[in-house]
Specification:
By secondary structure, this protein is an alpha+beta fold. It contains five helices and 13 strands. It has helices at residues 6-19, 25-38, 41-52, 83-97, 178-181, and strands at residues 69-70, 76-77, 98-99, 106-107, 117-125, 129-136, 143-150, 157-159, 167-171, 174-175, 182-183, 186-188, 197-202. Helix 2 (25-38) runs parallel beside helix 4. The longest helix has 15 residues, at 83-97.
């Protein structure tokens, strides 16, 4: 991670830069995920667009007809059909919008400017819970609303987007005091049981 191993993060970024963006579909799917994990929102978005471009289009980096991308039926192409691009591309989109593998739920870690407003529902997170969120990049911190539904007992952490300072936090409708939960930039949430629902609403 950027916090734990910044030198490895920079090495990974340089390696990706050297490899370029356009490639086979399975490779571009990996690159979307890597760029999102690095927090490189615009690079992740650029590679995602290359992955989703129609197969017959000219490659903007070479001027030649590309062999990879997406078929008219939305199958990912190598060519021919390659499921890695479909699954990996979907994973990359999720990685751009929500992260939790570090132990802390981090909304919008690699949100590109092109996705000015939006919402997504039912994303799984570490600790057996599902998360839904909406965003508006014209607002401080971009995050408008977050809902976390627990499916088993777990004490979650939540990393707030930079710039988000005014918000309301509720657990099963009960108002919480964020200042009492904030530690090193993360909200240390109360123990949640199966069926509990936590909401964060930006003000």
């Amino acid at each position: 991670t950027q916090e734990a191993t910044p030198e490895l993060v920079e090495a990974a970024r340089r390696s990706l830069d050297a490899r370029g963006a356009s490639s086979t579909s399975w490779s571009m799917a990996w690159k979307v995920n890597f760029r999102a994990r690095l927090g490189d929102a615009e690079e992740a978005y650029k590679v995602l667009n290359l992955l989703l471009r129609p197969v017959a289009e000219l490659d903007p980096t070479t001027g030649k007809a590309n062999g990879s991308g997406t078929e008219n039926n939305l199958f990912s192409a190598h060519p021919p059909f390659q499921i890695d691009g479909n699954f990996g591309g979907a994973s990359g989109i999720m990685e751009m919008l929500l992260r939790s593998e570090t132990g802390s739920i981090t909304p919008l870690p690699a949100l590109p400017k092109a996705w000015a407003k939006g919402e997504i529902t039912g994303l799984p997170v570490v600790g057996n819970a599902t998360c839904s969120l909406s965003w508006d990049q014209s607002k401080p911190g971009s995050l408008s609303y977050l809902e976390l539904v627990s499916h088993s007992p777990y004490r979650h952490q939540l990393t707030l987007p930079k710039g988000l300072e005014r918000y309301e936090l509720r657990l099963n409708g009960r108002l919480l005091q964020p200042k009492q939960l904030l530690r090193s930039g993360r909200l240390q949430l109360p123990l949640m049981k199966a069926g509990d629902k936590l909401t964060l609403t930006a003000r």
